[in-house]
Amino acid sequence: MNKPIKKAPIRDQIYDIIKKNIIEGKYEPGSRLSITALSKELNVSNSPVREALSMLNRDGIIDIYPNSGPSVIKFSERRLAQIAQAILSMLLGAFEICQQTGRMDQLVELLQKTLKAQIDHLEVDNMQEYVRYSISFESAFITCCDNPYITRQYGQIEDLFYMIVLYNHWHIDRSRNHTVMEHQQILSAIISGDYSTAKDLLSAHYNRFQLNETN
User: Fold this and answer.
1) Does residue 6 register a pLDDT over 90?
2) What is the pTM of this model?
């Protein structure tokens, strides 16, 4: 007899809802999150909301200050540089593993697929799907290296990366086409076997990655 499916605790459901709203841009970076307002909106008591916010703080998605309460993280120059540096180091490491383990054909196939989807969604101005596939292009390196430890590390900051990319593309139209162009250049270098240039292009892509406004 199958065991009954257990519902997730209320705090986990609230965590998922608030996290989704933050990642998809409903709450912009730096915006305050009122426990009372969230409790009323979600029709729950303050306690599970407070617990969910504590979990989001642990994940680095919100900040909680003693005198001002919780707020969505702000992407200062320092924080942005640290996130970009962490992601780049993982992508370059994953790229190296793909070369060493003979997974370059698999990588090229996945990069081509995600780049096409990225361009398709850009053409119809579907921003959230465009951003999802833009990130998928870069996470293809992680997927293809097939290393669970790198995958786990990347997963810990992937949501922050999505927030950064979505915010950047909502506010800077020119960055959308620029990102596609850089992805095309990276893919072309990999297809031609010029892995050194591909790594340089990937590094340059992250070195220039910054928000229009910093705090």
Assistant:
1) no
2) 0.80
